[in-house]
Sequence to fold (967 residues):
Amino acid sequence: MIALVLSHFVLAACAVPLVRRLGRYAFVVLALPPAATTVWAVTEWSGAEAGRPVDWSWEWIGTYDVSIALRLDALAELMVLLAAGVGALVLLYCASYFTDDSPRLAPFAGNLLAFAGAMLALVLADDLISLYVFWELTTVFSYLLIGHGNERKKNRRSALQALTVTTLGGLAMLVGFLILGEAAGTYRISAIVAHPPEPTLAVSVAVVLVLCGALSKSAIWPFSLWLPNAMAAPTPVSAYLHAAAMVKAGVYLVARLAPAFADVPVWRPVVLVLGGATMLLGGWRALRLNDLKLVLAYGTVSQLGFLTVLAGAGNRNAALAAVAMILGHALFKAALFLVTGIVDHAAGTRDLRRLSGLGRTMPYVCAVAVLAAASMAALPPFLGFAAKEAAFDALLHGDTADRWVLAVTVVGSVLTVAYTLRFVWGAFARKPGVADTPVHRVGAALLAPPAVLAVAGLVLGPGVGWTDRLFAAYADVFPAPAHPYHLALWHGFGMVLWLSALTWAAGAALFAGRATVTRISRRIAWPTADSVFGHLLLGLERVALQITGFVQRGSLSGYLAITLMVMLVGQLAVLVTDRPWAGAAAPRVWDTPLQGAVALLTCAAALSCLTVSRRMKAVVLAGLTGYGTALLFVVQGAPDLALTQFCVETVSMIVFVLVLRRMPVRFEESIGTWRRALRIPVALAAAATVGVAVWVAGAARVAEPAGAAMIEEVAHHGLKDVVATILVDLRAWDTMGESAVLAAAAIGVTSLIYLHRRGEATMNRQELRGETAWTLSTRELSGLPQGDDNAPERDWLAAGSTLAPEHRSVVFEVVARLLFHPILVLSLYLLFCAENMPGGGFVAGLVAGLALITRYLAGGRFELAEAAPLQPGLFTGFGLFVSTAVALGGLAEGTVLHAWTYHGHLPVFGDYHLSTSVLFDFGVYLLVLGVVLDIVRALGAKVDRQIEREAGALTPAPGAGAGEPNR
Fold:
């Protein structure tokens, strides 16, 4: 199973070269994975109908009992056949529907196949978290497919609307999954269905949240607005996603969970009421639309309401009818969407008011459409008739609520017959006063996929008994009724058949009076859900603008004050309400008087920041608080933390200095006396509250500290540095996530500086025709001693010639030259000694970055280019690659980030060992080095180049116009 799922994504990744080489015929190759999946599902039919599921699982997050589990049972068998079989036919249809020069064909092909893979994994998933992951993957790929024609505003809006509605529902569903998983004690779906949790209030809330996700995915009212607008997508997308795949996901989830939760009090009211309302509203709206695709879209909304009612009714016979109707609906609705695409392709329009005479000019297309439409109208001997009969019988013999739902479904079926006749008449009939629509010839390859689906609906009508055992294997999960229903085309004359005859007659009468119906429908039409959604978004944007204008006033200190005050109020409310200090051990003032002295000096530096008006002074004072914190770590006996704090504070101060070169000397924001007086108590109160919260959190510990166990574990592996081992082994997941966040933050910050391409900041000395930024001055310096210009000079730096003599510091250059390589060696030492002494990849990367910063401060941007000729992104990317590779390498031992050590012997060096944690730390080292280098290049070298460009010290770039902006 997993190989079939992965093959979809692997081949989807190859869509671009395939389309480039084969053109539109690449769709034939891309149809191979779903075709192979269909064949596999057919071979598993007998096992599924006999109740022998196929299981596969891989432990993902063992601590939380989360695994990627797949399971093929009777219900999944049906859904796999639909997702894979219809998917293969749609991909073959695309090979004739598109042309080689269709825009963005390769991304479309890849997204369509990837969606098929995600849908396949969704219906096979036997774990709630895995199901949610694949659920959201279908949402993402549907967004990309609906927005395929992104040059049109309608496509972009429709894609965003579908993404918004289904994602919000998915998030609610995720919360429900978490509650259900905790209540049941497992996230395995088969186990939850077999042994559901007790229907407590929490479970009821979880059920409602899960239904929100399911109903939003299947476009059930009030979430039905996105599906008709999604018709902006190409027709193959509508035929697959909105007939046979994506919209069935919600119905599938309802059917999957109904055996476990149909008895929860909130289940049936939500499912039956909303499903019935959707069936009526969608069918009524379809009677007054003129776009064939929209007629089918609202008909799909109506049918999805019907399917939801059957799947959620909570009894065996209704469940049997539901799965039969799922199959029938997928066959006839996908065929009709594909036929609509053929009509649009051949006639150039889908407006039924302009179409006329296509039944004579396109007889084969008309025949296929009539076959599919007859199944949709539930005419015998089609599959739609057999499924509708089963549905009527199940509801007729149900309880009182079921009989009320039966009345709704009969009315909805009348509407279905009416809009089915309207579709066939509008697409193929010759209309009075309308000239026959000219069409071009349609190839057999384009007609074959819908023909296969329509003929399948015809064959499975008399042959519906072939599916009875499979569908009963799912339906028998419900309590057995006194008279179990069995699928068959003919059950004799009875009330159910008379109800079907009533729907045909009433539907035909409704179609005959279509002019009156259309006029009445438009006169009593409510505001569309789409317009309501648009007004809600507009109102939300206006409220957001008002709030933003009120809060965001450009004062950084104001933002900080608001943040601190909110934190202060929240913490004080919790502390006053809970009084967590009761029974807590009193805090010690200090362990040694030296701690108190350092803390006092640190607090004095922090308080001094409140009164300064110069930016540089504020930076220095803030830096002193950081160094004071590092001294506290030293006194406390935490050399790892102290070393890291010193390095971070040094790099931060240098970055601040680089930034302040382009900013005014003083703070521009005017601060009144009363505002300054208000800041001090707010700052002190916030600091005191955080201090109390830290004390309370520490005093609230009831379990034994984990430190002793960690020391023992580290010593067991022959190591000494507990902190470093925690970072790269025991808590390596945290380190990996923090590394990724650090890289993303650095890239984001520096991208604000590089408004254009990163590579455009050249370090070629030939572009310099004047002075560098290090020699530019606003005034001439006088009184300096003049040396002998003919005296021999020694260049201590590689780019020393770019510096003006009067601005060079020989001492600094010599020190930079002498210390550069030792600092790099020190960084490597800190990297490799981390197992037994203070160090590690993070601090080692900072030390290496300080070596490069020293070269830059001594010689400018050209010196930095000589010292680090490679792009920073290379270090960052390769570091992430190394860390990720080491993490994935642990899978060889069964789990991600599993560490192992290799022991060996070298002739000269003696015994040695190499641990994967060192390799992981090496990735962190490269990543941090790349981040520091990227920041220095952006805030140092890039700013230098801007200064030189503004001063006219650079040669204009070739082809640059006079109006080129400074970059």
The longest strand covers residues 54-61.
